[in-house]
Amino acid sequence: MNAAPVYLDYAATTPVDAEVAQAMSECLTAAGDFGNPSSMHAYGLAAAARIERARAQVAALVGARPQELLFTSGATESNNLAILGGARANADRGRHIITARTEHKSVLDPCRHLEKKEGFSVTRLAPGPGGRIDPAQLAAALRADTILVSIMCANNETGIVEDVAAIGALCRDRGIAFHCDCAQAAGKMSLALHELAIDFASFTAHKLYGPKGIGALYVRSGARGLLQPLNFGGGQERALRPGTLATHQIVGFGVACALAARLLPDESARLAALSERLWQGLAALPGTHLNGAGAPRVPGIVNVSFEGVEGESLVAGLTELAVSTGAACSSDSADPSYVLRALGRDVRLAESSLRFSVGRQTRDGDVDLAVGAVRRELARLRALSPAADAPVDLAARPGGTLISGEAGGPGEATWVRFYLLVVGDTVTDARYRAFACPHTTDVAAWLCGQLPGRARSALIPGTPAEWAAARDIPVQKLGRLLVVEDALRDCLANWT
Length: 496
Prior knowledge:
Layout: E1 6-7, H1 18-25, H2 42-62, E2 69-72, H3 75-89, E3 96-100, H4 105-117, E4 121-125, H5 135-141, E5 146-150, H6 164-173, E6 177-181, E7 200-204, E8 215-219, H7 247-283, E9 288-290, E10 301-306, H8 311-317, E11 321-322, E12 324-325, H9 338-342, H10 347-351, E13 353-357, H11 364-384, E14 400-408, E15 415-423, E16 426-435, H12 438-450, H13 464-471, H14 478-494
Parallel strand pairs: 1-11, 3-4, 3-5, 5-6, 6-7
Antiparallel strand pairs: 2-8, 7-8, 9-10, 10-13, 12-13, 14-15, 15-16
C-alpha cells in the first residue's frame, strides 16, 4: 500500500485536534450536554454554559469581548452577513462599497450581488507593486456615499497581510463601517480587535484545528446598528443570526481557539521557519517566483509560480504531496488564480502556481521531501515540453524519414508536437512533446502507441470524441484534444 501523501494544504483546512474532538463528543449523547441551549431546564442551561465558555475562548484568541461575537456556520456566512447586512442597513446613507480584487469569493460575490441586483456601486482596488492594498489608494477611493469597506487581514492564497490598522483608521475617521475577513489570520498571528478600528471581522474554526461548519462574526460594541440580519426566526445571537445553536461545534471551536492561543508564540515561529526552509529549497530551482515576496505574510503559507510547466500536470505528478494549485483546470477554458493575476502574474505563471501551507503536523523532513518532489517534476515536465526542443528517441531505420507536426505554441494553454518516423507510406514509430494538462498528455502518449503501422491515408486514428471515450477523459477537456488532432494534421501537411 502506498504511503499517504504529505499534507501541505493547511490553509484549505486542518485536521480536528484530538482534544477538540473529545470536547465535541461530550455534547452529543444523552450522557453529555446535548440539550437545546435555548431551553430553560437543566439540560439547556448546561449546553448554554458550554457555549458561553466557548464564546469567551474565541474572544480571548482574537482580542474581543465575548458579547461581541456571534456564531455562524463559518467565514463564508460571516462575510455575507457583514457585507449584505451592513450594506442594506446603511443604504439610506449611501450605496458605495470598497473592496479589493484579491478578496475571497465569499466577499467578492456578495459585493457583486449588491452591485447587480440592489443598485450599489462597488470599487475593487488592485494591490500595489508590493502586493498589498495601499491605504493612500483606498483613501483616494472613498466617497461621500461610501458606507462599507471590506479588506481581508491575511490572503488565503498568498498569505499577504494587509495594513488593517491604517485602513481601519481611515474608515473610522469618516464614519464608514470596516469589515475584515480574518479567517486565515486567527491562530497564526496575534490579533487584538479591541485595539483596531474594525467593526466586523469574520472567522472560521476549520482553519485552526476545529470542526467545519462553525465560525463567528465579530460585531464591535456600538456597531450593532450598522448591521441587519439575513435570516429571521428567533432571537439567538443578538437577533442577527437566529437558529438553534450547534453546541458541539461551538464547543469544538472554543477549545480549538484556546489551544491556538496557548501554542501561538512558539507555533508561529516554527511555521515561519518551516516556510523559509521550504522557500529557500524551491528558490534554488530555476524559474521559481515567490508570490507576495514584497509584503509581510502570515506564517505557514508559501505560494510559488514555476516557469515552463503546466500547473495541473505539475500537481498530478506530485503524488507524494497534497497541495493546492492556483489554476482551476476542470474546464476547457483556463481559469488562473484571480489573486495572482491581480498581483501582476501572467496567465501561464498564475496557472503554474502552487500554494504550500504547513501546519502542526509538518516537520523538516516533509518540507525537504516536497522540495525534492518539485525538483523532479519540474525537470520531467520541462524536458517533455516542446520548448525544450530536446532530441527524440527514435531509432534510425533504412530509408526512414522523420516528420513532425505541432499545434498550439509558447504562451498557450496547450502545445503539442508529434514526431513520426515513416518508411515509405507507413508510420513505424512515434513520439510526442507536450505542454498540456495530464488528460491531454495521456491522449498524446496513447496515440503514439496507436500510430505505428498506420498509412498516410489513415494517419489519424479516430476523432477527439472517440479518444476521450477510450481514455475516460472529461468532456470539459475535449477542446484541448482538438489541439492534439491539429498537431497530427500538421504532420500530414508536412508529410511530403
